[in-house]
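ARCHIVE CARD
CATEGORY: sequence design from structure
SOURCE FIELD: tokenized fold
FIELD CONTENT:
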């Protein structure tokens, strides 16, 4: 590899390099939920993206080694929750391996299609999974939005430099 004037020397691609590069990218924080064979499952995601307006579709990534993957692989529907800046603890709970994600203080109920829906989020959607695309050690899930509620006021939670953060003016 050759260096470009004004830029640092490029490093070869690796998982550590990718993580280091994406720490520079601020991302919104979402929690994805699904019904699992043994109860509800969920995980924190920063890979949420709008894909299409007609039909309304979104995408997110999930690691195939994640504890939620078997449920997401088997289900037809997921809940997608956009977190507010007041929900750092909720984001951390759903990001932590081995945590009781649906126990107190998490407040949730059963939503459309039996999907676990979290209380107090900025917005939530129930989606029908259209496909799961292999992408290395992850799957990119494409899902059609069936219903949702964007009504709660507030500012979004962000993930940047390895931490949950709020917007600054």
């Amino acid at each position: 590899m050759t260096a470009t004037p004004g830029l640092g020397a490029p490093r070869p691609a690796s998982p550590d390099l990718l993580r280091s590069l994406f720490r520079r990218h601020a991302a919104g924080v979402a929690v994805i939920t699904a019904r699992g064979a043994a109860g509800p499952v969920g995980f924190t995601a920063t890979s949420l993206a709008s894909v299409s307006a007609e039909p309304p579709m979104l995408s997110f990534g999930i690691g195939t080694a994640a504890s939620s993957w078997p449920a997401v692989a088997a289900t037809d529907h997921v809940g997608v929750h956009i977190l507010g800046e007041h929900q750092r603890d909720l984001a951390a709970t759903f990001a932590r391996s081995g945590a009781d994600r649906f126990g107190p203080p998490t407040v949730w109920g059963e939503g459309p299609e039996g999907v676990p829906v979290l209380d107090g989020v900025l917005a939530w959607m129930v989606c029908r999974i259209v496909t799961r695309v292999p992408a290395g050690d992850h799957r990119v899930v494409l899902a059609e939005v069936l219903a949702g509620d964007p009504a709660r006021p507030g500012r979004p939670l962000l993930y940047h430099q390895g931490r949950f953060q709020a917007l600054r003016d």
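CARD ANNOTATION: The chain has three helices and twelve strands. The chain has a mean pLDDT of 93.
SHELF: design records, drawer C
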